Amino acid sequence: MPPKKKEEKKKDAKEETKNEVEEERELVEKELVIGYLRSKLNRYQEHGDRLQVDVLKLTDDLETQKLNLRDINEFLTNELKARSLTTSALEAKVAELNNLLEEIRKSHEAALAKLRGDKDKDIERLEAIVREHERKARITQDFLDRKEAMETELQNLKDTLARKTKDFEQQMT
Q1: Sign of the torsion angle spanned by Cα atoms 45, 47, 50, 54
Q2: What stretch or stretches form a coiled coil here (predicted)?
Q3: What's this model's pTM, rounded to 2 decimal places?
């Protein structure tokens, strides 16, 4: 049986060699996996570091934007207050001018009504004067017409008298 022992030893040595090779292979695989995981971890850490830097930059940008927005908001609030005051003053001025305009309109309407009344009275007075002048003109025209008729009649009578006087003188001679 001694040869068996050698064979067994060989088998054991082979198995041991196989086991060692397998262990070594497993160890290499584990080292590869560990190396891969370490490189992956390094990439993630680098990515995390970049993200932290980006977060810091974004936080700074956010704070800057907040400050800018606060300044803008303050400016616009002040501008709104100023414009509100200006608008209120202008609205008060508009109301005052509207009241003044209404008062002026009423006074002008009253003055216009008075002028119209005065004008109507003047027109009536002048129309009465015109009617009186027209009446006097008709009377004068009637008088002139009668005067002309009377003068014509007088002339006719004078002519008749002169003829009759001539006829009478001729008869007497």
Answers
A1: negative
A2: 87-167
A3: 0.42
